[in-house]
Amino acid sequence: MFKINYLKLNYEKIESSVYNFDNINYIYGPNNVGKSLMILSLDYALGKSQLSIGQKEGMENVKSIEIELKDDLDSLFL
After folding, report:
1. What confidence tier does 43 reach under pLDDT thresholds 50, 70, 90?
2. pLDDT digits 0-9 by tens, 45-57
3. Which residues, in sequence order, are CB contacts of 53 under 8 Å at separation 6+?
4. Cα 58–63–8 angle (5° rounding)?
């Protein structure tokens, strides 16, 4: 079974954001810091959404999304 190793959001004008994942993860924090953007990005990268990145609110400045899925033997980069 694959697990998410990391998610990287590449922005047009600001530094990229990298989120590393472990076996158990909690997403929490104050308002307006990117929690929903992280979830939208995971949904998009894993194929849930048919819309392009820029069509979702909050993702106007996201240029690309990178995600690594990993199991005991292999890594898959999307």
Report:
1. confident
2. 888 766 666 666 6
3. 44, 59, 62, 64, 65
4. 85
